[in-house]
Amino acid sequence: MARVEILTPKQKINELITALLKFKEFEPEEPKTPISNLRFEDARRNLGEVNEHINKMKILMELGGLNIEPQGKMKVNDWIEASNQVFIEGSEIENKYKDLLEEIGKLRAELDTLNSQLQEVEPFKNIGIDLKVLYSSTHFEVALVVINEIQKKQLEDKGAVVIVDELGNNRYASLVLSRKGSNLDEILKELGLRKFETPDFIAPQIYYGNLKERINNIQTILTQRREELAKKIKEDEKNIKELYGKLLTIRDAMNILAKARKSEYYVQVEGYVPDKSLKRLSKMIENIAFITYEYPKRYGEEQEEPPTYVKLPKSIIPLESVIEFYGTPSYWEISPTIFLIITFPFLFGLMFPDFGNALVLLLFSIWFYNYGKKRGSENTVKLSLVLIYSSIVAMVTGLLAREFFGPLPVGGLQELLNNPSAPVGPLYYAWPIPVSFYEKISDIIPTGANAIINTILLSLLLGSILLFVSTLLGVINAIKKKDKEFLFLDRLPLFIIYIVPLIVFLYGFINISNYQGEEAMILGGISYFLFHSGTPAPPSVQILADILVIWVEIGLIYNWVAKAYLLKKHEHASTGSAIIFGFIEGGFEAALLLLSNTISFIRVLVFAIAHYYILYAFSYMAYLAAGNPSSLLSVFINPAGIVILIIGNLLAIALEGLIVFIQDMRLHFYEMFSKFYEGRGRKFEPVMTYVELTQ
């Protein structure tokens, strides 16, 4: 990223703005050293107005059910004049729908008021006597109030009789009676209670009916007005979308002008441009302006944080939406998007291995994508694309696991009952992944026979690899940041510590045919060194185990000393406090995180098993509901069995899909990103043209 300064003669400022909008990779900034204090005040005023018009156009498109997207062309000689002309066009369109919008607004406001009144009378809707009669009793003072348990007790303590109808959430619709002259109104006021009344003291039942009738009438009128408005907007779709495109373009043009400075003869414009695009910009404006540039200085040497620009293929840009939940990378950080494009869908697929469920999730994601496009919601579109990628990977893992809406369609009763002589499912022989291949990989599939130990070890191996890569990226980011203290006292200790789990779970590959046995030896050696119990590993393995434990201890001591130093230097802690809290954060907590972060990846296995056995349980219930038949067809045609299977799969798709997505994010945000990613930067937001600019 480079910061550019552009000087152009005043008479060419409009050409420069047009060029920068077409360039689409320039983000304007306030000049560091302005040539004067003079600004384009008209542009600054127009910024507020253009945003108001944009919001109104978006509302119109939403009400009309249109896709929120810009279209059209515009010819500009002077951007200030063009903005004023576009504002006139905007006002004309807005005035065209003004009366209908105002009427809809009034109807909605009235509907909200009536619904509020309806909610207030709801507790007493069954009382058919006029309140005038009820409240004018000769011998008693009477009130209708909504109270809680404490207020009920307080009223009874003051001699009142309370007849209640429970509403839930510790609320009661109550009829309160006390003897004449007891000043019930004062008692209610003292307790903060309001006596319920209706207009002209009519019966609550009648008042409730009147309100319902008025609400239904207003809803009918409101629906008619909305349909009328939507019809008119659709007829005017082309003009509205063209105006929307012009407004967005005007907004970006005014943003450039509002930050520019001018002198008697020149205009100064500054901003950020990706360094790879500098030559292209220089060529575009060589006849209308003079350009200079500089690169951001070392981290911490300047107050301004340059924007972060990561050029990604369009196909993976949506994964930035997941990154943005955590924060935008700083300009010196490696963007985790490339890391995420592999790991996020991969982990999701491992935790959600069912082709049928993943297919439903894919179809939902496509619908969600179209919904987001229609609503003009960029975040919805990006999130839906993340789900699309993840569900496609889950379909692949589902194919490998030979699962399709649970065990019955493929494995059939043979898989459900673990009976080799029972019938298989209708898709058993038609499945793209043959049984022979499945049997070869079954030992590493969570639902395969005798695969639990192997899948636990592979989950831990996967976790150790991802944690190692995360800490390595942390070291690289610290080098890019050019902050030696951050490198040697924060990132390097973690890198040293997290090398050990990688070595431990890669050790089994020295004899991959006996991976489980090799891992048992190295883990047994570590256990023997730590607890001095049991049987030591073979000498060479035991020596390696001893070295790895000592390595971790040295890394933790290094981290402890580093944290103590940072506490003393930057937070001015006393030596004793720095040592104590340095040990808690750098030694004790780091050791716990080393263990918990690595073990945390077992959830990849756990959720895969949980997903499978939820569907297995519902399949078995369907089998029982069908009367323990020997034929699979009997399960599929049994009404109760069908309902059970549908409910089970819907729960698995909705509940498990959501949980797996959240857990996938947790593994990235907590276990991985915390090792290398700060996310304190700001996103590169270049100005651009949203319509075709003609000469």
TrEMBL record:
<keyword id="KW-1133">Transmembrane helix</keyword>
<feature type="transmembrane region" description="Helical">
    <location>
        <begin position="602"/>
        <end position="623"/>
    </location>
</feature>
<dbReference type="GO" id="GO:0007035">
    <property type="term" value="P:vacuolar acidification"/>
</dbReference>
<feature type="coiled-coil region">
    <location>
        <begin position="90"/>
        <end position="117"/>
    </location>
</feature>
<feature type="transmembrane region" description="Helical">
    <location>
        <begin position="488"/>
        <end position="509"/>
    </location>
</feature>
<dbReference type="GO" id="GO:0016471">
    <property type="term" value="C:vacuolar proton-transporting V-type ATPase complex"/>
</dbReference>
<feature type="transmembrane region" description="Helical">
    <location>
        <begin position="381"/>
        <end position="401"/>
    </location>
</feature>
<feature type="transmembrane region" description="Helical">
    <location>
        <begin position="543"/>
        <end position="561"/>
    </location>
</feature>
<dbReference type="GO" id="GO:0046961">
    <property type="term" value="F:proton-transporting ATPase activity, rotational mechanism"/>
</dbReference>
<protein>
    <recommendedName>
        <fullName>A-type ATP synthase subunit I</fullName>
    </recommendedName>
</protein>
<dbReference type="InterPro" id="IPR002490">
    <property type="entry name" value="V-ATPase_116kDa_su"/>
</dbReference>
<keyword id="KW-0175">Coiled coil</keyword>
<keyword id="KW-0472">Membrane</keyword>
<keyword id="KW-0406">Ion transport</keyword>
<comment type="similarity">
    <text>Belongs to the V-ATPase 116 kDa subunit family.</text>
</comment>
<keyword id="KW-0813">Transport</keyword>
<feature type="transmembrane region" description="Helical">
    <location>
        <begin position="451"/>
        <end position="476"/>
    </location>
</feature>
<comment type="function">
    <text>Component of the A-type ATP synthase that produces ATP from ADP in the presence of a proton gradient across the membrane.</text>
</comment>
<dbReference type="Pfam" id="PF01496">
    <property type="entry name" value="V_ATPase_I"/>
</dbReference>
<feature type="transmembrane region" description="Helical">
    <location>
        <begin position="338"/>
        <end position="369"/>
    </location>
</feature>
<dbReference type="GO" id="GO:0051117">
    <property type="term" value="F:ATPase binding"/>
</dbReference>
<keyword id="KW-0812">Transmembrane</keyword>
<feature type="transmembrane region" description="Helical">
    <location>
        <begin position="635"/>
        <end position="662"/>
    </location>
</feature>
<dbReference type="GO" id="GO:0033179">
    <property type="term" value="C:proton-transporting V-type ATPase, V0 domain"/>
</dbReference>
